[in-house]
Each structure stands twice: as structure tokens, then as C-alpha cells.
């Protein structure tokens, strides 16, 4: 059961997969939204430019009806005149055509923004396979598209039929109406029909856009195995990362152990904790922790310190406070200055005794360690 669930596409697409699909030209598109946008643009364009276009067409029609006598007997002149007339018509309609072209290019970007991908232009010869083509023709997606097309045709056709039936008397009255009055009534009927169809297209686009978005993200869903594989590719194999972290810890431990022989003193618990301190007068503002560890690592620090004759001092409260409140490589807390100063004073006396002989110094018996820094102090548990 777990293998089957891992192979089911239940996980939403990751940002990486969304970006990859976008690079390949796979973005949600709504033809209905583009159709509606172009339709509205055409209606607004005709409403704003209708007067200008009508006057231009009237001029072109009047000039086109005036045929010089010479052109009537020379076919080449008629062709030249037809070419000039066609160019004039194109020039007259160019603002409207440019507006429509801009909207046709801009409308698809309303959902997914601007995108240009060469991969979408690459030839895909597998689409020439007739078996795959038949599979696409009888697929669930094709059935959904066919249902949508039939519903759209029925909806728009029904809106058109309703408009004509609702205004049948006005349409029939156009036959007997004078030209000027009939033209006005015809314009009103055209505007009403346009608004009805545009309203129908709004409903179709309002349904199609969410469906296209839902279908796009549904197709990009990932299986749990794909998510795990992508995380491995992005963040690395967890086992490999664990080995790298282990190697890094081992290298850090070796560097730390290399600093133990350079320490001035090792404060111990005596076996649970070991903290190695170093202080250089004039170079350090306060003593620093060059090594620390607990249990086996603490014993290893003691062993290396004994091998290199680093002084050991058993001071359990101070060792615990240094271990828990001083990070490796950092200065000791200011509240421990007095206690550590006594320890260093003892170390310097011991060093002098080793060099010049005499009476051996006694280790400090009582070191002032704030109770709140000692994790084993029962008053602060």
C-alpha cells in the first residue's frame, strides 16, 4: 500500500517543477478569455472609431465608383486602381487592426504573464504517431473539450436566438422603416446583440479560467517519490550529508585536540567535563576556551594534556560552568573572571616551581562560581 501511495500524484508541484514547466512553455492558457478580450476590444474599437471608419469607407466607395473612361478599356489600369483601393482600405482600418493585434497578443498573458520559449517551437515527431493521436482524440481531456465546445455553442447560440426572438417585431419593422430610421434601429439591435453575446462570453471565461488553472496544476502534481528525489537533487542525499557532517565534526575535533597541548590549564570535573583554557597577555582580552568535551572526549582531553604536561585542576563547579556557558574559541564569561584568574595564578606558580624548584603551590580550594552558572546547583534548577 505504501508503494502505491508513493506512486500516486498527491503532492502539489514544487517551485522547481513549476519553473521547469514554464521554461518548457507549459503554462495555463484560456482560449475563452482570449476570445472574450478580443471581442470586447473589437466592440470598443468600433464604438470609438466607428465614425472615422464609416467616413473613410464612404469616401473610398465614392471614389471607387468613379471609373475613368480610359480605365474601362485597359485592364492593367483597373488592376492598378484595385491595388490602390485595397491599400487605402488597409490604411484606413490599420488603427483598428493594430488594436486587435495588440489585444490578441496581450490576452494570453493575463493568466501567466509574458513567456517566450524556444522549446515550444521545437518539432515533436512523437505527435505524428497515429496511435498516440487516436489516444488523444478519445482521451478524457478531449471529451471535456468537446463538452465545453458544445455547451459554448449552445449558450452563445441560445443567446443569439433569444435576442432575435425578443426583438422579432423590431426586426420585421425594419422592412417598412425609412432608411435613416431603419439604420438607427439596426444599430441598436446590433449593440444589444453584441452586449448579450459579450455577457455570455463573460460567463464562459469565468468558468474556463479557474478550470484551466486547476487542470494545469493538477497535471503538474508530483508523487511522494518525485518529491523525495527532487529534495535529494536540491539539498543532497541525506546519507551523504550525514557523512559530510560527521567528517566535519571529526575534523573540528582534530583541530580542537591539536590546541590542547598549547593550553595553559585544563579544568576538569574530574571525569564528566574537561575544559582547556589559554591566555596570552597583551594579545587576549580574557582567557579563551580552546577545547572542551564531556565523558569520553573529556577523558581524551585529559590524556592529551597529561602527555604534554599541561596542568590539570579538578574544579567541578567551574568546569561545569565553563562547559555550559563558554563556546569553543570564545572568551570566558565575565562573571567567571575572578575564578579563572585564581586558576591562572596557580598555574603560573606551578610553572615557576617546575622551572626553579622550591615549595610546590597548593591548588585553590574554593573558587567563586555564580550559582546560576552551575547546572547542578539545586537552587537554580
Q: What does the radius of gyration come to?
A: 44 Å
Fraction in helix: 55-70%
One letter per element, helices H and strands E, the order comes to HEHHHHHHHHEHHEEEHEHH
Low-confidence sequence ranges: none
Number of domains: 2
User: Could you tell me the mean pLDDT?
Assistant: 79
Sheet/helix structural class: alpha+beta
Strand order of the largest sheet: 5-4-3-6
Explain how this protein is built.
By secondary structure, the protein is of the alpha+beta class. The chain has two domains: 3-112 and 134-232, no CATH class; 256-356, 3-Layer(aba) Sandwich (name from scop), CATH 3.40.1690.10. It contains 14 helices and six strands. The chain has helices at 2-7, 15-23, 31-65, 75-106, 109-112, 130-137, 140-166, 168-173, 179-219, 224-235, 238-259, 296-307, 316-325, 337-356; strands at residues 9-11, 222-223, 265-268, 273-278, 288-294, 312-314. The strands form two sheets. The protein has a four-stranded mixed beta sheet with strand order 5-4-3-6, with helices on both faces. The chain has a two-stranded antiparallel sheet with strand order 1-2. β3 and β4 form a beta hairpin. It is rod-shaped and about 140 Å long. The relative contact order is 0.08.
Amino acid at each position: 500500500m505504501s508503494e502505491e501511495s508513493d506512486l500516486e500524484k498527491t503532492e502539489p508541484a514544487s517551485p522547481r517543477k513549476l519553473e521547469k514547466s514554464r521554461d518548457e512553455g507549459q503554462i495555463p492558457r484560456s482560449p475563452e478569455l482570449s476570445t472574450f478580450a478580443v471581442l470586447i476590444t473589437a466592440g470598443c474599437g468600433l464604438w470609438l472609431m466607428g465614425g472615422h471608419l464609416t467616413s473613410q469607407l464612404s469616401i473610398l466607395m465614392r471614389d471607387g465608383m468613379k471609373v475613368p473612361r480610359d480605365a474601362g478599356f485597359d485592364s492593367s489600369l483597373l488592376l492598378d486602381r484595385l491595388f490602390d483601393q485595397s491599400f487605402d482600405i488597409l490604411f484606413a482600418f490599420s488603427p483598428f487592426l493594430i488594436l486587435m493585434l495588440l489585444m490578441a497578443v496581450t490576452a494570453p498573458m493575463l493568466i501567466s504573464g509574458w513567456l517566450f520559449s524556444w522549446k515550444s517551437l521545437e518539432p515533436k515527431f512523437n505527435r505524428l504517431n497515429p496511435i498516440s493521436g487516436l489516444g488523444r482524440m478519445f482521451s478524457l481531456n478531449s471529451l471535456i473539450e468537446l463538452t465545453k465546445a458544445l455547451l459554448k455553442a449552445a449558450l452563445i447560440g441560445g443567446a443569439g436566438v433569444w435576442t432575435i426572438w425578443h426583438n422579432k417585431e423590431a426586426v420585421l419593422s425594419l422592412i417598412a422603416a425609412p432608411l435613416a430610421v431603419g439604420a438607427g434601429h439596426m444599430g441598436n439591435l446590433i449593440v444589444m446583440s453584441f452586449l448579450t453575446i459579450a455577457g455570455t462570453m463573460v460567463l464562459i471565461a469565468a468558468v474556463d479560467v479557474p478550470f484551466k488553472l486547476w487542470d494545469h496544476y493538477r497535471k503538474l502534481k508530483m508523487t511522494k517519490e518525485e518529491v523525495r528525489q527532487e529534495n535529494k537533487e536540491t539539498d543532497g542525499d541525506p546519507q551523504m550529508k550525514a557523512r559530510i557532517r560527521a567528517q566535519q565534526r571529526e575534523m573540528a575535533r582534530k583541530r580542537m585536540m591539536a590546541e590542547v597541548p598549547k593550553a595553559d590549564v585544563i579544568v576538569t570535573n574530574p571525569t564528566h567535563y574537561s575544559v582547556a583554557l589559554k591566555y596570552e597577555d597583551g594579545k587576549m582580552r580574557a582567557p579563551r576556551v580552546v577545547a572542551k568535551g564531556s565523558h569520553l572526549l573529556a577523558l581524551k582531553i585529559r590524556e592529551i594534556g597529561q602527555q604534554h604536561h599541561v596542568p590539570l585542576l579538578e574544579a567541578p563547579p567551574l568546569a561545569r560552568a565553563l562547559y555550559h556557558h563558554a563556546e569553543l574559541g570564545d572568551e570566558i564569561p565575565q562573571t567567571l573572571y575572578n575564578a579563572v584568574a585564581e586558576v591562572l595564578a596557580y598555574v603560573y606558580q606551578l610553572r615557576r616551581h617546575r622551572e626553579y624548584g622550591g615549595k610546590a603551590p597548593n591548588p585553590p580550594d574554593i573558587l567563586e562560581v555564580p550559582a546560576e552558572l552551575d547546572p547542578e546547583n539545586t537552587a537554580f534548577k
